[in-house]
From TrEMBL:
Entry keyword set: Hydrolase, Membrane, Transmembrane, Transmembrane helix
Pro residues: bias regions: 97-116
Pfam families linked to this entry: Sortase (PF04203)
Listed Low complexity bias regions: 36-70
Region feature Disordered, mapped onto this chain: 1-116, 253-289
Annotated InterPro entries: Sortase, Sortase_Class_E, Sortase_dom-sf, Sortase_E
Protein name: Class E sortase
Length: 452
């Protein structure tokens, strides 16, 4: 109940404007932003006479601030405290779902079939309108068969490439490569009579000819190499075996013939014999006369080298030297003296390599080494004096009665050993000279150099 006094109407306060979302504010990743509240003018006071009448809705008129007052500030000049803003809570980031990665164990998706490529030797040029597609070409007869064979060959190649790529990527497969048609490459064969079949046949024939030629050449070289190895083995090893066997048999034969020498009296010590008696064996050797080419008549002993090889008449390579024998120069202008001659040069020759190689190491002989020549009745002892390392094969002066270059100046009883040099060649000759220092009958016993 009213007591007649006008009761003051409660002061109306302007309501803050509601938040108006914008396009950016409506986004899920942006927080909502509060709009600034604006004050409106207070409603005019209500007339008491019209208090009972229905109140009309006040019309809000925009209140414009005075000059210098910012828009939205209170009109009465009071300071409005800022309203507290809600705390911004960031929304969690959305993590994209992982994309499944295919494993190697899963089969690869099949590759799209390759477009057919026509392997045609000659292609005609056709004029095609850009807007009108060309009509399919109709083929018939042998040309169509060749085209199909070419297409099939290309498809096989594509299938082989795919299989090779898959084998490199996933490992070798236990199945043969297949073409797009599903047939294996091993069972595929070109159509008989096609150009592809003819090319394959020609290629196979050419490869066969090349294979045969290479086989023949290879077998020829292998055979030639084997023959060369056999020849080298024969020259360096087997000829020595044969020559040693032959020279050993010749030495045994000579000793068998000398087994019963003539005895002129009781055996005496050769050191106690007089010089005239010590050379008595030479007369018996001279009485024996000459010898035929290739016939053995003496044995050469070189104690330092361990040589005990027979000497045959002549220096023929096939009849004497290649049989492992030592040859005596006794042919034509190369005729030299015998050991039992009163003066002269007893010149002999022998192989240095192969065929027994009796003179291989005579280059190691030095002055004072002994060379003993044994005959049926006598031992002729020589002492080495000088060596000529190399000379021409045409230099025959080294076997003259007084050999040139030996240091001998007057006739005497000399010996000359000749052989080839360097080893395994016959370009030059190696010469060794010696002089006789003793002559002992075989009946007096073996010389001291051989007895030890």
């Amino acid at each position: 109940m009213s007591d007649g006094r006008a009761e003051p109407r409660p002061e109306s306060r302007p309501e803050p404007l509601r938040e108006e979302p914008t396009a950016a504010d409506s986004s899920w990743f942006q927080p909502r932003r509060a709009m600034p509240a604006q004050d409106v003018a207070a409603a005019p006071p209500v007339d008491p006479a019209q208090e009972g009448a229905p109140a009309e809705a006040p019309v809000a008129e925009p209140v414009r601030p005075a000059a210098g007052v910012p828009w939205g500030a209170p009109v009465d000049g009071s300071v409005r405290q800022p309203e507290p803003q809600p705390e911004r809570i960031p929304e969690p980031e959305r993590i994209p779902e992982p994309v499944p990665v295919p494993q190697w164990s899963e089969p690869l998706p099949p590759a799209p079939p390759a477009p057919p490529v026509h392997d045609v030797p000659t292609t005609q040029i056709r004029t095609v309108q850009p807007s009108i597609p060309p009509a399919p070409e109709v083929r018939a007869g042998a040309g169509a068969v060749r085209e199909q064979a070419a297409d099939r060959t290309m498809a096989l190649r594509v299938g082989e490439l795919r299989a090779a790529f898959a084998a490199k990527l996933l490992g070798p497969a236990d199945y043969p490569a297949e073409d797009p048609a599903g047939e294996s490459a091993e069972s595929a064969a070109p159509v008989a009579g096609s150009r592809t079949a003819a090319r394959r046949a020609a290629r196979a024939a050419k490869q066969q000819r090349q294979l045969m030629a290479s086989r023949i050449a290879g077998e020829t070289f292998i055979t030639f190499g084997a023959l060369m190895l056999l020849f080298v083995a024969y020259q360096l090893w087997w000829t020595n075996v044969l020559a040693d066997r032959n020279s050993g048999n010749q030495a045994k034969q000579l000793r068998k013939e000398w087994a019963a020498p003539e005895q002129d009296g009781p055996t005496a010590d050769p050191k106690d014999a007089k010089p005239a008696e010590r050379g008595a064996g030479s007369a018996k050797d001279r009485a024996a006369g000459g010898y035929d080419p290739g016939e053995g008549f003496a044995i050469v002993h070189i104690p330092k080298l361990g040589i005990d090889d027979p000497v045959a008449e002549g220096v023929d390579k096939v009849k004497v030297l290649d049989k492992g024998l030592i040859g005596h120069y006794n042919d034509g202008e190369l005729k030299t003296a015998m050991p039992w001659d009163r003066t002269g040069n007893f010149a002999i020759a022998g192989h240095r390599n192969t065929h027994g190689e009796p003179f291989r190491y005579i280059n190691t002989l030095v002055a004072g080494d002994q060379v003993i020549v044994e005959t049926k009745h006598t031992y002729y002892v020589y002492k080495v004096t000088r060596q000529l390392p190399s000379t021409s094969p045409a230099n025959t002066s080294v076997i003259e009665p007084v050999p040139v270059g030996s240091g001998f100046t007057k006739p005497g009883r000399y010996i000359t050993l000749t052989t080839c040099t360097p080893e395994f060649t016959s370009k030059y000759r190696l010469i060794v000279w010696g002089v006789m220092v003793d002559e002992l009958p075989r009946s007096a016993g073996v010389p001291d150099a051989l007895a030890g």
